[in-house]
Amino acid sequence: NCLRIAAIFASLHSSRGPRADYSEWLSKMGDRNAGLANYASAYKKASRNETVTSFQQRENLVPGDLLRRAFVKMSTTPEAFLSLRSHFASSHALMCISHWILGIGDRHLSNFMVNMETGGVVGIDFGHAFGSATQFLPVPELIPFRLTRQFVNLMLPLKETSLINSVMVHSLKAYRLYPDLLINTMDIFVKEPSLDWKNFELKQLKKGGTWTKEINVDEVNWYPLQKVNFARRKLAGANPAAITSDELRLGHEKSPAYRFYVSVARGSKEHNIRAREAEDGLSEEVQVKCLIDQATDPNILGRVYEGWDPWM
Fold first, then answer.
1. What Å distances lie between residue 114 and 9, 55, 248, CA to CA?
2. 237-251: b (≥16 Cβ within 10 Å) or e
3. What is the average pLDDT across 167-185?
4. What pLDDT score was predicted for residue 112?
5. In this model, does residue 110 exceed pLDDT 90?
6. Full 3-state SS string of the chain
7. Rounded to an integer, what distance in angstroms lies between the CA atom of residue 29 and that of residue 243?
8. How many CB atoms lie within 10 A of CB 232?
9. From residue 235, how far is each of 45, 92, 177, 248 by CA, in Å?
10. pLDDT tens-digit profile of 207-220?
């Protein structure tokens, strides 16, 4: 008895208003007929203050408690609501950490399903994994996982600082305690890479860049080894923003917007904890703080692809 989160929201509110507002804002950054190129223009031209203000205006076009309303409707008693909410938060937090380690992206609202009886959430459609959404999509994803306003507000009054943060830390500790279990499982991709991986390998080679000086591309399995190494770095305490920046380099280094992508991904020391932390060697607690900081950064959310519905 599951329902996509997109369908839950569609039954309560239309996102047409924010989308129209976002399209208008993007067209001001570039050209009304420029299409996806306007996103690159938004990264290059829009200041942090301008982006955040505009994004918050779009958020305010949507009631902030839609997911909470849906859970209240699913509940027969206050105790049932707390149970459903708890299961949603813990399952989503575990999924977020798991998806980040595996580099799973494209987490728009149709890629989440909620069990209407238990409140548990599962992800579907893993077409973009191992960082491919950051590296290859024309509008690169700089978000490690989905933790937008509707998800956070379900946990009011403590929001993401309560159960979500706790489960994320415990999940990451469990993964980092036995890293070889996951890395050895991923070894199958090295020995028998899928057709998708072969296609991505060719695409990365075609894009080129300074990374080619650091890797022997004549080695048979260089591409899957590179992807497994990203997971290994995450399990060793890498700063999430550093990972995003390195994935951007592999796919967008020759783009005129590349340095702006990296700047937004890394954040600023004034506003973002991820920008104040080291590149690697972080504890699980600090890694989670950096991940949540990056996932909830309005300077990133204000520039993502419109189909992601970041205001929801």
1. 12, 27, 32
2. bbbbbbbbbbbbbbb
3. 94
4. 95
5. yes
6. CEEEHHHHHHCCCCCHHHHHHHHHHHHHHCCCCCCCHHHHHHHHHCCHHHHHHHHHHHHCCCCCCHHHHHHHHHCCCHHHHHHHHHHHHHHHHHHHHHHHHCCCCCCCHHHEEEECCCCCEEECCCCCCCCHHHHCCCCCCCCCCCCCHHHHHCCCCCHHHCHHHHHHHHHHHHHHHCHHHHHHHHHHHHHCCCHHHHHHHHHHHHHCCHHHHCCCCCCCCHHHHHHHHHHHHHHCCCCHHHHHHHHHHHHHCCCCCHHHHHHHHHCCCCCCHHHHCCCCCCCHHHHHHHHHHHHCCHHHHCCCCHHHCCCC
7. 28
8. 16
9. 35, 19, 9, 20
10. 889 998 888 888 88
State phi, psi for 287 to the nearest 5 degrees: -55, -45
Do 114 and 8 touch, CB atoms closer than 8 A? yes
pTM of the model: 0.94
Residue entry with tokens 């309303």: 69
The dihedral region occupied by 261, where left means phi > 0, alpha psi between -120 and 50, and beta the remainder, is: alpha
Kindly tell me if the per-residue pLDDT of 290 is higher than 90: yes
pLDDT higher than threshold 90 for residue 14: no
Name the amino acid, one letter, at 170.
H
Q: Which candidate, 224, 46, 251, places its Cα nearest to that of 133?
A: 251
Residue 1, token pair as written in the block: 């008895």
Position 27 confidence tier, pLDDT thresholds 50, 70, 90: very high
Per-residue confidence (pLDDT) for residue 12, from 0 to 100:
84
Name residue 275's amino acid: A
Q: What percent of the chain has pLDDT over 70?
A: 100
- The contacts of residue 229 (CB under 8 Å, 6+ apart) are none
Q: Are strands 2-4 and 121-123 parallel, antiparallel or unpaired?
A: unpaired
Q: Tokens in use for 160?
A: 């993401």
Could you tell me the two tokens for 23? Answer: 């399209």
* Residues listed for the chain: 312
